[in-house]
Write a structure and sequence with these properties.
Length: 136
């Protein structure tokens, strides 16, 4: 594998790591103070009050995140167009979720979406030719 293929695989894996870390922070890390009707105070995480439709959306986003890493690594190793299609679909879903959640979770997953776009771009590059020029 040349350096473009290594960069493609690394970008895909980094995008997956950043997205999973962001979602874990969102679900488990954020806590806020609550007061009950009995006067007790405490803290709760976001996971304790998540709606079922949000669970479905998070699962779809998680499948897309995993698809980015699998698509980038498998395409960088085999150059099979199927894995590039997996990468295109997964990056599209990630960018769509980033744009839809721009005012809520979008800023958390935006860095991972940018690395996923970089992995997609690198999957379309073929590296330098024998004349030393890169082709797209």
């Amino acid at each position: 594998m040349n350096k473009y293929r290594w960069a493609e695989a690394f970008s895909g894996l980094l995008a997956t790591f950043l997205a999973i870390a962001s979602l874990a922070y969102l679900l488990f890390g954020l806590s806020y103070n609550v007061a009950t009707s009995t006067g007790r105070n405490g803290t709760e995480s976001m996971l304790q009050h998540i709606q079922p439709t949000a669970i479905i959306a998070f699962c779809l986003l998680l499948v897309a995140i995993i698809g980015v890493s699998v698509g980038a690594v498998c395409h960088s190793r085999t150059q099979n167009p199927f894995w590039r299609n997996v990468l295109v679909f997964s990056v599209s879903i990630m960018v769509l979720f980033t744009l839809i959640g721009l005012l809520s979770i979008g800023p958390l997953i935006a860095p991972s979406a940018l690395f996923a776009i970089l992995a997609l771009y690198l999957s379309y590059t073929s590296g330098p030719s024998k004349t030393g020029e890169g082709r797209i």
